[in-house]
Fold:
Amino acid sequence: MRSRSLLLGVSLALTTPLMTAVPAQAILGGVESPRAYSFMGSFQPSFPAPPRPDKHGCGVEVLAPQWVLTASHCAGKNPTGARNGVPRGWKVRVGSLDTPSGGEVAEVDHYYRLATNQDEGGFWGKDVALLHLRTPVKAEPVQIASATPKDGAPVRILGWGMSCEDSTNPACFPTRLREADTTVQPLAACPSAEPTGELCVGGRDGKVAAANMDSGGPALVRDGGRWKVAGVVSGPGGENAPTLYTDVTRHAGWINGIISGTAVPPDDRIPNVEGAVELFGCVGSVVRSPASRPKDPALLLTNGHCVQGERPAPGAALVDRPADREVPIADRHGYPQAIARANRLMYATMTGTDVALYRLDKTYAQLKSEGAKIFQLTSKPVRAGDALTMAYTSSRLQCTAEAVIPHLREGGYQQDNSIRYATAENCSPWPGTSGSALLARDGSTIVGIHNTHNDAGEQCTDDNPCEVGPDGRVTSVRGRGYGQQVHLLAACVVAESKLDLSRKGCTLTR
Structure:
């Protein structure tokens, strides 16, 4: 399968490594739609919230009074990346030219995805999802085309995607529906295309194309004097090339089976991810030490290499620095239970261990009243054989401490008494899991923190940690994962969530 990106419409640190955003392709050759399409709609989730004022994330098409069609990767923005389930804060606006007003607004109460990027059979060509609406809309539905349109067939594309590349410029986010008449191209015109299941739509030079945040929007064909949907936007076809649409005519059976109620797939079992904090490329957890009191400012734990800005230098630590980052604390299904801000970096180091502590703008009592999960910091080291649960934002990995390594070296840094995980199928960390808490059996005590794994089998280079034994022997094994001890922190945290590095028993790098 070729590696390619999606035309994402929702901003989230992905729960899956495949879904990375691409620079927006301006919609060229199109115009503002002179009239509304009853079936055309805008998908507007509040979580994850799209990075634009109107909250438009993807396009949708009404297929039945309580069903809309979109792309699977649009519905994949649920916190755990589940295939089927119940969302929170999702809505659609249908039948309007404008994303902020007009038409009908309905809440989404269920999603069903044909494929995910973790499917063995592949994702491309199956990038289709159905959203069920809590209440029916009056909009006239659109039908699915009866057959795959042939090369050269005329099609119309619609959407509210970005019109320029600057995501900080509101002018790049059109609130008025745009459309363009174009054609279906041979798949060879889209270098990123898969052999089956996709349509290559737009100008051969990419001058007529769908844009970022047009995902899920339709490729319409004329059939019997009516518009019918033949495809939905999936991803770019290549540089200066048309856009790839999933051919929905191939999946009419799956779609009709769900809408009719004759073949509705069961909901996924959602893992309990309570307390995980998404830090956009890393993970954090709210922690309290034995010295913490309810009125104290809460502390956030993550890796030292996850700090914003410059990392701590080898042999050194960052102490009491200004900070400003959002801290969304997940409920058991991954949606924000409470949101705080980190306003101070209390401590960060990558020497001896790989940890950072932030001070939040809310107290432990405030977070508790909001229902947020708060973990307890251990005062005991992890030992070989200890069972560990790695608390990632979308899953819980079951790990075992296979060994405690005297020294772990990586890219000029050294950590001591590092935790090596036993090689197992259910404990295989990946980039983005850094900072995930390692929990004891009680599920509430943090005994370690995940920080690295050997990516390529190299020795002691960035992303390729090596072990140094008591005799100085260096070993490096591709795929091995490691965590760091955190019991050192408990001896250094004092009342009011302050850090005392000179306190007796505190051995953190100064």
In short: The first strand starts at residue 31 and ends at 32. The domain at 31-260 is CATH 2.40.10.10 (Thrombin, subunit H). The CA atoms of residues 319 and 347 lie 5 Å apart.
